[in-house]
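Why this split exists: single-chain examples teach little about how molecules sit against one another. For that reason, every record in the complexes split bundles all components of an assembly together and asks for one structure covering all of them. Below is a record exactly as it appears in the raw files.
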Amino acid sequence: MKYKGLFLFLSGAGIALVLGWVVFPLALYRTEPQPLSFSHKAHTGQPASMSCDSCHEFAEDGRFLGIPVVDQCAVCHAEPVGKTAGEKRLVEEFVKPKREIPWKVYSRQPDNAWFSHTTHVKKGALKCEECHGDHGQSESLRPYQVNRISGYSRDIWGPNISGIPSQPRLDMKMDRCLGCHAEKNMSQGCISCHK
Amino acid sequence: MSNRITRRNLFQLAGGSALGMLLSPVPWKLLDDSAIWTQNWSLTPKLPRGPISIRNSHCTLCPGGCGIAARCVGGHPYGLRGTGQHPVNSGFLCAVGLAGHHYAYHPLRIDAPCRFTGREEDSRLIPASLEALLSEMSGSRNSTGGSRPGGSIAILDSRPGRSVSQAYQEMLSRIPGSVYLTPPSNEESTLEEIRQISGVDGWGFDFENTHTILSFGAPLLDGWGTPGRIARRFFHRSPKELILIQAESYRSRTAVQASRWLALRPGTEAVLAMALAQVLLQDGLCPTDIPVRVADWQEFKELAFRLPIAAAAEKTGLPVSAIVEVAHALAGSSSIVLGGCDPGGGPLDRTASRAIACLNILLGNIDQPGGIISRREAPGVGLHSPRGLPLSDVADHSIRWMIIDSAASGYSFPLSLLQHKLMHDKGRIVCLSPYMTPIAAYADYIIPTPAHLESLEEVGTPPGAPASSWGLSAPLLPRTAQSVDPLDLIPKMSEALGFPGGPNTSRQELLKQRAAAIMAARQGTVFHPGKGAAVKVSTRTGTGDFWNLLLEGGCWVDDPTPPRPATRFTMLGKEQPWRERLTARLEQPGPSPDQLVLMPVGWKNATSSGSVPPMISKLFQESDCRSLAGTVLAHPDTAASAGISSEGKVRLQTRSGEMEADLKLDPALMPGVLHGAVGPCVNQAQTLRQAPAEGLLALCPVEEDGSWRITPAQMKKA
Amino acid sequence: MEQKNKARYGMVVDLDRCTGCGNCMMACAVENNLAPAEKKANDRTGITWMRVYAMNNGKAFPAAETVFVPMACQQCDKETPCIAVCPQNAVDRDPGSGIVGQVPQRCLGCRYCMTACPYHARYFNWSDPSWPAGMEKALNPDVAPRMRGVAEKCNFCHGRWHAARARAAAQGRSEPDPADYIPACVESCPSRAILFGNLDDAGSEVAKACQEGNCFRFLARLDTESKVYYRSAKPWVREMAEGNRMPSGKDGNLS
Amino acid sequence: MIEQTLPRLPVESAPAHTIRDWKAMEKKWIPRGLPRCSPGRFYAWLAPWLLLLAIGAYAMYLCFAEGLQHTNMDNRFAFGLWIYLDLTVIALGAGAFFTGFLFYILRWKEMTAVINAAVVLGFICYSSAIAILLVDIGQPLRAWFTFWHPNVHSMLTEVTFCLSCYLTVLAIEYLPVLLKNRKLRQVPLFLVFEYELHRVMPVLAGVGTFLSFFHQGSLGGLYGVLHGRPFAFREALGIWPTTFFLFILSAAAAGPSFVLLMARLTQFLSRKQLVRAEVFAQLGKVSGTLLLFYVLLKTLDTMLWINRIYPQTGFSPYSFYAEPSFGTWVLLLEIIGLGLVPALFLVNPRMREKPWVLTLMAFLACSGVAFNRFVMTVQTLALPTLPFDRFLRYVPSWQEVAAFLAVLAYGVLLYSFSFRYATLFPQERDLRNQ
């Protein structure tokens, strides 16, 4: 047992690494269900073939209205489209009583961030996919994970627990904003984006 | 041996784990997340989310009638501003109105009927029910018969002229011996005297076209009338020149902005007015038709010359030259002489108001452009005149039930005024109020009504306005379940008092009828807040259309009223009671120089509305804008004469009692005068159980002439 | 290149027009989600991004004169005292607007900026801000509420600036319409004592007004080149404001 | 007797043999050949300080849990007792770096008599400064932002970086002092570690000197750069205001005095001679020389300040000293009473020989530095800047005072433990044998 010390040292390190890289993320994030299942693909694909901004609208004053209100759903879903249980629930629990659907928003930024979709989409000519990935093509809503400490959606930090951005980038932390702003020679001032 | 775990082995394991941890995301992510947690924790509220919209309405906190535009998130107001181009307030609000949407969350909000167990300091707040009130009312019917002369049932209406006021008056008209009361009015005191002198109702100030204003302490630039209207006349790029002469004992906010400030000794307003009248008569500055139109010209002239100018100058503390100059300045152009006083001090005494009204007549200001012009009432007022009996004119100890409606703060008049009118022992006060105010705390029953912006209300003609106006205050916030609409309470009270079958129309119906009446008269214009412009009522077709526009913040304004044919005046009254009163005032010896006088001071916007929004505490506690209630200001010499050299706690004593106050030294004050700041109580730590108190106003007894603004006082170190 | 000094926002406050009504303070407090004053809050502990001070000429009745001085962050342009001292870049000067921006979420609460500011325009959250129950529903969605232990100050209503820029983007303009970006204090002032606009736009009302003879800056000799100008026709006001403290009994200067 | 005063110590309720065992065990931790008082007496001495520490910990808890509303600081007096404390303890803690500098770099062998004590004192001063800073800032959980998003132009960034680095250095320097303990030396690893540490000590002393140089200066710069506060503002030499250099010099001057003072105090309390008189005299000489130099520069700086900065900022020369409680006596006391006087006495060899003069003058020198930090913190903030401002007053709250005292108690405790279980004064054994 000449290498007992080294063995113990390495096993201590190994246990810590497993705890840190595997167990910790599981403990840090809480998965919350979405209130309804939703397929973006069913809306953007055939036959509906809607574009992003047919539901995620821009108001005249330049504000982005974000997740559509239930009245917008009601335009098509006043009565169940199809026979699924989800459709039935949508109509009975939300559309008819005009109750807003409590969606969990993957990309919800904190209250102190000001992000104008209008500026980025209309002036900056960014595509929705550049930040939101292929969310618009998804068949179903992936689980929403919330950080137990900070209360942020996991999408802000990005899927990689190390914080090293994946390619294509999926994280939504400030350094990603700043990187793009620096690249495109856009404002770097704090209150340009903080409210 | 080698299989034993030694201490050294444990160190090795721990060392490895520590290294492993450092190479894992744990410490770094925890550091980051804990920092984000501090930015995001639940101790800071989350922001509301939703579509942004603008909703227009009217402010009903005071009679000013300002149009408000509310920025809303998800339909919920989060910021108010004046409606742009609004004909009444020109897009401006006062500081209190700006936070009007916060009233619903007032920490002193009353959510159920309640009462205090007594008037003592340690009395408790207990629940009271509407049923208990109604049964006590019906019980009292047997003992008093509901027909005591002098008014056994009184309704004190802080906002006369509303449709609810009509309903009150209708109810009272069927109850013998009842009386409809209005609280002392500050801003229209001059107009009220002119009404009595001329026997004609309906007057307004034509500030927009006037050249010279002589104001006897009216806080013109501190919330008078509709602040936006006054501000527009004074400050907005306007080609018309304006001279303001402010006669007041200290350099108030208004005096600072005035072209000339006359440091007038308190209580000598009537003397100055009569001295000015004397100069006008002496120098032949009255228009020629005035002597003909005044019935008692000779008597008045005699009275005006009673006190030599030099004597008047001494009494008022002004140089003779100043009096002469002011008289000439007033006569030389269109002018208005305006009586008033600091809102904390209530109305100017009636003798002074009468003298000021007479001065306007001598100057020929009545029915002249830029003077005091005719103003017809808005259509649809109906059977009852909005004017009630002033509270001070009711016989003492005659009222069994005093019902106080809306916006009564307890800082606009001393509670002793109310107290003296109540019957001994049996007198009861019912206060309809959304918040706990000193007056509510004093009541026997507090009935919660909807808070500001929670119910459909109306706004009538603001004080001193040149033309009548009418608009709606559409609710911007949902009503709370427990609040009671006064209109629903009236028939119940009427029935309890033995007169069933009271008015039974809904609030909306009542207001719709009024709107229809205005529409039917086809006069005036209606302002469209969305367009920022007004259109003639006669061009609008449907009543429904008109109603909807009013609900969206529209405002009807009457056309200018044509001048009345030469009005005749009786300056000193039919039986000439004013000759004696004015004489007494002119011959009254001046106060002795070492006699301190206490003058209550306040801020109209804060003392006139039932309560103040919590945010107002910033102005009182954290800036130099306003003095906290309970502060007494004095010139250092004044304090020195009382043996006090530094700021701090002092005791004030008047014939009404004694009280502790915070002395602040202010060399800007007239020596011998103490300014006692009254209301509002802005302390955020207030709870319903510890009701706000009346404060220094309790030291100010109501004089025979109905005023309480000058009280001899003593001050000593606490 | 695009972002270089598009605008340099500033103010001119006419002290002769100010009646001390407090509208600016209230409008500011409501707009910027300030909490009502705490029970014991006073002029030294309370948070008021805009505060009205009274300045007097030190004389007694009847010669006493007072002007009200609305004072917010003076938005210093040159060697901005608070920017240089902040250890973690929680304050910066926005290059596109000239606004000295404070980001409370970055702040760690050392209060060095507060000792650096000669205008006392910076405020610290000595406790968690608290609103009466339910009032969080009435918060302005465009301004983040602050937490305890951080400094805050006037950012020239940056919430309105953001909204105006978004509106401009929606309309395809690169710069906000001046009519869309008016700070709450300016908007609410009934006597129109406050002018606001782009100081670099020679045609703007502020750019012209700040050149007038009656115009001055508080503590101008400290050379911070603040972007909040004041004006008054009263010589004593100008003299005091520029840093020549006048002997007034209470402050007891030796002269 | 002492046992009776401490009925609550768990030791006392234990059976007699346990106490005996414990006493014997405790004795093994005490360095060989150094007489120390009985453990009962030692822990009785600690009890009041522990109490103070507990009260202070409660006060700090209040600030962490409910925010700094528990202090009497306000928006105008944003720095208070704690910042004053930080500045002062760091200035006094300069004894560590300066003694280290003298011993390791300049090879003044006689400093070996106090080097351990100086390191311990330095460690105490710096760790308490960091601890109180963490209470003083509003958001301690975000304190690391300074490292992640540093503003290199801020003096406070410089302070934070140097302070935390130097505290690490001090901790490493402190370790061998602890590891020399005879029980700890039984662990072979520690022995090796301690030996290795000794070899790098001169390097550490060099690093420490460099870091100290910067943060002492930056603490001075903290005020000197405030061009919005003409009272504190000084013109820059290069990128640093003159206060930068004055603070370095004054701290270097006060540091040896503080070491001297503490050694004297320890001698007095333990009733033993611990350090040879020549060493004290040497410390006094160093302190006095530096202080004289400092007084000269400070005077020069004050003259420049009165004649250049005052007129430039539009403040009248005397307005800063107009308030009766902060008259010109402040300036005179600081420069002459607590500067020139001790400096002159300390440089005089004949005066240095008298122990009481040496001690008193060292005390005055330390007070002078403390007073300078007080003036820079408190008077800077109390003075008005805007024309309608008034001179302000500030009285710390009990929580601030309690935290202040807790830091003092922490220092006493750590110092007492170090004195008992480590060799702070190597000459003690020799002096005892003589």
